[in-house]
Amino acid sequence: MLNSSKLNQYWTDIYFHLHYPHGEKITHQVVRILQLIEKKDRVVVNDVANYLDISHNTASEHVKRMIHKNYIEKKRDQEDERRVILRLTDIGKKVLHENTSLDEEKLNHIFSQMDEVEIELITKAFKLLSERAKSCM
């Protein structure tokens, strides 16, 4: 039977061996903010503060630095002009992908050594885990 500890060990092994080489140095908090903006709709500075459990002022400073680096941009909410929504720029999407995703070239190499049944099994397992993970938030 698979337990959480084993799954974490497998996941860290997978990530360690298959992640992209990190080019741009960014903090873990920046990665988490980029992920929040990518995964949630209509993120505002207050959402960043709540998500990271930091003050609004600290979250605002993080956002300003990320705007300066061109990772994110602010846009007025079309449904409520008073709200300012944070969005990823193309550079922000690239930085996020390189810091959280698995290297697709390495994955394709591994998949080329598998048969259809193995690939389908892995795909279904990751899809199921992804769907269940989304219900935890």
TrEMBL record:
SMART domains: HTH_MARR (SM00347). Its main location: cytoplasm. Keywords: DNA-binding, Transcription, Transcription regulation. Signal peptide: none annotated. Residues 1-131 form the HTH marR-type domain. It is found in: Cytoplasm. Belongs to the SarZ family. This is HTH-type transcriptional regulator SarZ. The lineage of its organism: Bacteria, Bacillati, Bacillota, Bacilli, Bacillales.
